Amino acid sequence: MWIFSLCLFLGSLVSSGLGLEFRYHNSVQVQQYLKDISANYSDFTHLHSIGRSVEGRELWVLILGQHPREHRPGIPEFKYVGNMHGNEVVGRVLLLQLIDHLTQSYLRDPFVTRLLNSTRIHILPSMNPDGFEAATRDCLYSQGRFNKNGVDLNRNFPDAFSGNSGQVREKEVVAVMEWIQNETFVLSANLHGGAVVASYAYDNSNGGRELQGSASVTPDDDVFIHLAKTYSLKHTSMHKGNSCPDSKDFSYGITNGYKWYPLKGGMQDYNYVWGQCLEITLELSCCKFPPESDLQDLWEANKPALLAYMQQVHLGLKGQVLDTNGVPVENASVEVQGRRNLCPFRTNHNGEYYRLLLPGKYTITVTCPGHKTLIETVSVPYGLDEFSAKTHNFQIQKIVSSTVPGMTAPTCVTPRPRSSENHSAALLPNTITALIALTIHRLLVSLDRKLF
Ligand SMILES: *[C@@H]1O[C@H](CO)[C@@H](O)[C@H](O)[C@H]1NC(C)=O
Ligand SMILES: *[C@@H]1O[C@H](CO)[C@@H](O)[C@H](O)[C@H]1NC(C)=O
Ligand SMILES: *[C@@H]1O[C@H](CO)[C@@H](O)[C@H](O)[C@H]1NC(C)=O
Ligand SMILES: *[C@@H]1O[C@H](CO)[C@@H](O)[C@H](O)[C@H]1NC(C)=O
Ligand SMILES: *[C@@H]1O[C@H](CO)[C@@H](O)[C@H](O)[C@H]1NC(C)=O
Ligand SMILES: [Zn+2]
């Protein structure tokens, strides 16, 4: 009897032909579903765990693409992360529906086929499975938001603007940080709930030159605005900007993160500053844990946006930095004039770089210790229809010099955020700045108790 009901219970995940059911699946069911998917579609999917939650649940990531098991030069890496706040459950549901859609449409639907042939897509449906299991089905309250240790994972990442390097990192955050280091992610989104808006970096500031009016502006603001608008304009209602009864009026349904409310230790700033991955935060429903009867409409509202957003990974430029012998150069920095990133974007171990840019002309500076600096101007066309950024390789020349015997040639170094000019806490941990930021943060939290 017990076995019979277990079969019934697992068998009911997928009603044949109709796809994944529109309901909430617990962590055991999600794991079973992902294992079934990776077994049924092993040619173009690969399932792996990036670590475990505090309570020991696996953090499953499904990878989809023509070569799901490894990175191939020229194929950009994309990711979606859901359910970082355990009680914000819509992203988790949508990402499972997205997996269902992509697996059923590959080699059938031309858009999905081209997308999966040109992109390696990583999906983490739940970054906080312990929080999900603890959550109550409530629109507003925060039960289940935190991980098992009571920590808000979206405040637990290293922060470029405030010296929080001494903070204890939670297991879920350590796993995601290692994942970001392992893969050359180019574009990402982090799915939340409690509002309907697309929010983009920065989420924090220390009053340096990034602070422009009430916004904390990145050097890639134009690209971030484009990315956020891509999502909101393809969404059935997000672009209207006032979907929720208590919401601010978000023009086009997008906002600079800091301008909405400052937060430190967030995942999107970490991705951008240290991971050279442009990430936006998507708030997808007024109600954090909506009734199951709303889920199908939520999927229909988000599906075109989720698909169009992934295609943006093909904006701009990509290629390799090679030396005069054609050998890839690792850790070379590839910088775009006028975009002084806190950590310069650097090439991976294949000498590859990816740079999301809107169409236009850009001057690129390639530097690597021991090599001559190379400056080239490149025209970036609109490449989305091709499902490929423009490929442009750079060839840099070694400086033939009399190195001191016994001294190894200098190599490019690990990125550490450079000063955002005035008071960079990352370089000069400034307790007063940190205290002021904390006080302002506390004040804002107490003024507006609603968390997203
Ligand atoms: C996997 O394939 C089996 C056998 O065809 C099928 O019964 C099951 O529904 C499939 N599951 C998923 C998640 O695709
Ligand atoms: C995508 O890749 C598959 C498998 O290699 C191939 O059969 C198919 O023709 C490709 N389709 C497109 C549109 O690139
Ligand atoms: C990162 O890569 C290392 C070495 O390949 C591997 O052992 C580890 O499991 C990976 N971690 C994650 C989170 O992907
Ligand atoms: C590139 O940087 C990484 C991280 O700082 C380092 O581990 C690696 O050895 C560097 N590679 C080269 C070729 O300098
Ligand atoms: C630093 O701050 C001072 C006053 O706070 C301002 O006058 C100056 O322009 C700032 N410098 C830079 C480089 O932002
Ligand atoms: Zn959230």
Order of strands across the widest beta sheet? Answer: 3-4-6-5-7-12-8-11
| Average residue-wise pLDDT | 90
Morphology call: globular
Helix content: 25-40%
Tell me how many strands there are.
Answer: 19
Q: Identify the bound ligands.
A: 2-acetamido-2-deoxy-beta-D-glucopyranose, zinc ion
CATH class type of the largest domain: Alpha Beta
Named CATH topology of the largest domain: Aminopeptidase
Specify the CATH homologous superfamily of the largest domain.
Zn peptidases
Largest sheet: 8 strands, mixed
Distance between the termini: 43 Å
Order of helices and strands: HEEHEEEHHEHHEEEEHEHHEHEEEEEEEH
* Structure classification: alpha/beta
Count of helix runs: 11
Compute the gyration radius: what is it? 22 Å
Name the CATH architecture of the largest domain. Answer: 3-Layer(aba) Sandwich
The total domain count is 2
- Give the percentage of residues in beta strands: 15-25%
Low-confidence stretches: 1-11, 406-415, 424-430
Can you lay out the helices and strands and say which pair or pack?
Elements: H1 2-11, E1 14-15, E2 19-20, H2 27-40, E3 45-52, E4 58-64, E5 77-82, H3 90-105, H4 110-118, E6 120-124, H5 129-134, H6 171-182, E7 185-192, E8 195-200, E9 211-212, E10 215-216, H7 221-234, E11 254-256, H8 257-260, H9 267-275, E12 278-285, H10 295-311, E13 317-323, E14 333-336, E15 352-355, E16 360-367, E17 374-380, E18 390-391, E19 394-396, H11 431-447
Parallel strand pairs: 5-6, 5-7, 7-12, 8-11, 13-18, 13-19
Antiparallel strand pairs: 1-2, 3-4, 4-6, 8-12, 9-10, 13-15, 14-16, 16-17
Helix pairs in contact: 3-10, 7-10
Bound molecules: 2-acetamido-2-deoxy-beta-D-glucopyranose (5 copies) and zinc ion.
The site of one 2-acetamido-2-deoxy-beta-D-glucopyranose has 5 residues, from loops.
